[in-house]
Amino acid sequence: xxxxxxxxxxxxxxxxxxxxxxxxxxxxxxxxxxxxxxxxxxxxxxxxxxxxxxxxxxxxxxxxxxxxxxxxxxxxxxxxxxxxxxxxxxxxxxxxxxxxxxxxxxxxxxxxxxxxxxxxxxxxxxxxxxxxxxxxxxxxxxxxxxxxxxxxxxxxxxxxxxxxxxxxxxxxxxxxxxxxxxxxxxxxxxxxxxxxxxxxxxxxxxxxxxxxxxxxxxxxxxxxxxxxxxxxxxxxxxxxxxxxxxxxxxxxxxxxxxxxxxxxxxxxxxxxxxxxxxxxxxxxxxxxxxxxxxxxxxxxxxxxxxxxxxxxxxxxxxxxxxxxxxxxxxxxxxxxxxxxxxxxxxxxxxxxxxxxxxxxxxxxxxxx
Length: 368
Description:
single chain; 4 domains; three-stranded mixed sheet
């Protein structure tokens, strides 16, 4: 029997037929991620898998996770592997499908090349092209978000050359890789009439927001003693920021303080920044960030604690995090870059939240 409040649904990827509205999955772990598909792992009993082989038809079945009537996750089944007396399943969110799709026409069948193009529009064009070919549609919609970021120039347009067989998933990854690029995540919701909506959410200048209504705190809703990572490789009290230009004409600003520690330097390359004042501001911010030692990469939280219940936070949110261990303490704003939920087991439902320092991100244009 599924843990209380959970239901797992299987759907045929092409026909849309609901193959089962209550798949008896066990050992389920699922979750989304920032600028990636997210993942699900689970097991299925051999008796059910043998009687319903269509449920575990890898590459042709969509799996959904419903918690208390709300769809929390959806994706495409990629692996079904017999292991001892269970069938192990692995699925990934909607953008994983683009890793198995190529531009076979070139320029996304006439949508490119791109000069000073909004990467949000290019991402929409990639999905439109992928889903326009026979048997190639997952029914995914992409947000209408627009950004001020630009890709491609008259000298170097963004091309999709058919003879290079470009992987569409890699192209999306490249479009969201730069600091000033938009963010994305994969999402699944119930629509009207019981229809399942598959969506790629875009955010610019970011996904998520700084949250003052929730928090992660040891002794309250953080249930483990997370590792607080400290490394001299990440520390710097001197930042050498470089901007636009080449050779001797390249703009440069050095921001340095004496703080009683050995001088440690780091180079911040900002080739699109032309203003010396902007370069100085970015260098100072980077130096202050690197002087703050320590970070927490993941925490385990109580899923229904009012301080930050599951469903209250989103991918990309900044949450003030305070953790204490026998070795060190840490407090600061952390950005949620993913989470995974284990739906059952001896400890019941558990949530592991993946974090990165919020001050490590720069939003909007490089020269902002």
